Amino acid sequence: MQLQNQPDKPDVRPIVHSPVHGWIAIIVLLVGSVAFVVRGVSSEVGWNADWKSEVSPTIQTKSVQVVVTLWIGFLGACFGSFLNVVIYRVPIGRTISGHSGCPRCGHAIRPQHNVPLIGWLFLQGKCYDCQLPIAVRYPTVEAFIASLFLVIAFGEVYPGGINLPYFPTPTYAGVVGIVLDPQWDLLAIASLHAAVLTVLVSWAFILYDGFPVPRVYACSTIVLVTVLTYLFPQLIPIPEEMDSPAILTYRILSGIFIGWLSWYAGSVRGRREPRRGTIGIIFGYLLIALTFGVSSIVSIYLLEGLLRSVFYWLDSRGRLPWGIALCLAALLHLVLWQSLEFSSWWPNRGSSVRLVLAIIAAQTLNTAAVRRRKLSE
Fold first, then answer.
1. CA of residue 92 relative to chain centroid, distance
2. Does the chain have fewer CB atoms within 10 Å around its N or its C terminus?
3. pTM higher than 0.85, yes or no?
4. 98 vs 76: CA distance, rounded Å
């Protein structure tokens, strides 16, 4: 029987696996996966100039797609693991460098136990040293970011960007085309979307924990995205969003305005949370405006209001973190962007009247949702 909380006695339990062995296994798995992908694609298409006409949905190419998809999900989980560090340390002023440790006893987490999702499941949600439970939120964040990466992969990258308005019609679809002839502009756009949504998730959990989003963190992110979208305007696949610095200024002002509306809708509760999170909420919408454009932020704001209304209707006592609602709304808009942009009934840049009506509707939905929660408390 293992004794708990005995700091005076040395830990005599043997380590199950050597860290070196763990890293060797990961490297072998990575190299083997890359070799499998290269071998599968090369044998399928023969590396000739007419590969686009020869790709067929065989078992081998399907296996390649599965391997690549698993690694994309694992990459997302790794970012989620790093996000847990950011969410915990940044608000309290701690550095994000250094080893991860148990939040209960402080022991450094061994490398073989620090594999995203797998490590927590392997240890059955407990610390290896003190045997105290580790919060389920840690693997939840990792799984959420992994799912986010997979949605972007299946909804944007694999189809060749058909969800993006005004993006060139793809000449291929699937993993094989990406491996042989990658569209770097599409990969850059998808990477920006994944990074921005990941940052929004971190801000959401920081606010959920009762801390304000650190201004240095928020401002540096905004400046970086502003510079990127200004130097590389093709990251926003809408022609009118690429014209001049005036358009960039318009996006910034629109993001601040919609963010203020969202904060105002939440402040009807009279609680301290919205006031403390003012910077995070406004900067969140500013980040959305810089990434997706002016008309898209109105669409996302309306989708967020709909999601909040549905959530509070299903569970009036529940709490949908602000950033999570915004992230889900942005992800839904991203997948449906092409259809929404050319819709005759949805708010888009083709109708100023619909944009104004959408803002009014979204404000009404958000206000009604938080008031419903206030009445249920």
1. 23
2. N
3. no
4. 21
